[in-house]
Amino acid sequence: MNEAEREAVARDILRLKRDRRAVILAHNYQRPEVQDIADYVGDSLGLSRQAAATDRPVIVFCGVHFMAETAATLCPDRIVLLPDLKAGCPMADMITADQLREEKAAHPGAAVVAYVNTTAEVKALSDVCCTSANAVRVLRSIEPGREIIFVPDKNLAAYASAQAGRPVIPWPGFCPTHHHWITQEAVARARREHPEALVVVHPECNPEVVAMADHVASTTGMVRYARESPARQFIIGTEEGLLHQLRKACPDKAFYPAAPHPGMICPNMKTITLRKVRHALETLQPQVTVPEPVRTRALAAIQRMLELGS
Ligand code: 13P
Ligand code: SF4
């Protein structure tokens, strides 16, 4: 799409958004042009809070399926649109409800902490959800001495467990983009190329990479850190879409990807395009819904997380 076409589609989206009284929520990994038409761009926690707080009848969720499902869980009376239903999360698919049932049976009495990167069925079997922004706080909220099953991200489990000082039983899931592409070697190379830069990574990176970092944070936490830090250069260890928000927030600072293009791309996040957003607003499809008994149980786990703050 050339610049003129992009502007025309963006204009259509803004008109349709007004007509539908819709709110557009976008994750930090979305394509830059999608981020730019959103009412709110943020991390998983911020997006859940926005969904919970909106009074609009239609929510267009520019992100992946579990994020739209979380919005539908929080807002059953709203229409939640995911412009492409193929936008999944491979990590969320690494644990099923049946697998979690078996894990719980193997550890009776354990609390289950579910990263929001899970299906609603898995959330419904969990005590409390967490995101990368509040995993440490959530672990600390579990009564001392109780066993904790943490699903599905083994890397976030290792990071949050060490920070909170709470042992956990991790599930062996991971994010392919963070785990396979942001390697120790890649970060070491970026550091050699930019010796003045601070290394900031997402906790979905593997523990060896996390150990090399100057700062570990959620995507919105990374933007906050870059804004508040006196440093001028940063090596960024997360999906490339965040570079757009970082450069907007700090136009006078330099941001370098921790691994070469196209490694740090989540293909699922990139399936959402401006044209698909326009189509979703025109047709009010595709919608994401969560069946009622699952929704109420998943809601309890999400609400417990939201009540704990970030
Ligand atoms: P954040 O909640 O930090 O934005 O992370 C979401 C995600 O999917 C990371 O891969
Ligand atoms: Fe899932 Fe990884 Fe994509 Fe995040 S970046 S949505 S964890 S696959």
Quick tags:
single chain; 310 residues; alpha/beta; Rossmann fold; 4-stranded parallel beta sheet; 15 helices; binds iron/sulfur cluster
Summed up:
The chain has 310 residues and is α/β, with parallel strands linked by helices. Helix content is 46%, strand content 15%. Strand 5 (111-115), helix 6 (120-124) and strand 6 form a beta-alpha-beta unit.
Could you explain the architecture of this structure?
With 310 residues, this protein is α/β, with parallel strands linked by helices. It has helices at residues 3-20, 32-35, 44-53, 65-74, 97-106, 120-124, 135-141, 154-164, 176-181, 184-193, 207-212, 219-228, 242-249, 274-283, 292-308; strands at 22-27, 40-42, 58-62, 79-81, 111-115, 128-130, 148-151, 169-170, 198-201, 215-216, 233-237, 254-257. Helix content is 46%, strand content 15%. The strands form 3 sheets. A 4-stranded parallel β-sheet has the order 2-1-3-4, with helices on both faces. The chain has a 4-stranded parallel β-sheet with strand order 6-5-7-8, with helices on both faces. Helix 1 runs parallel beside helix 14 (274-283) and helix 3 runs parallel beside helix 4 (65-74). It is globular, with a radius of gyration of 19 Å. Bound molecules: 1,3-dihydroxyacetonephosphate and iron/sulfur cluster. 1,3-dihydroxyacetonephosphate binds at residues 28, 43-44, 117, 131-132, 175, 204, 218-219.
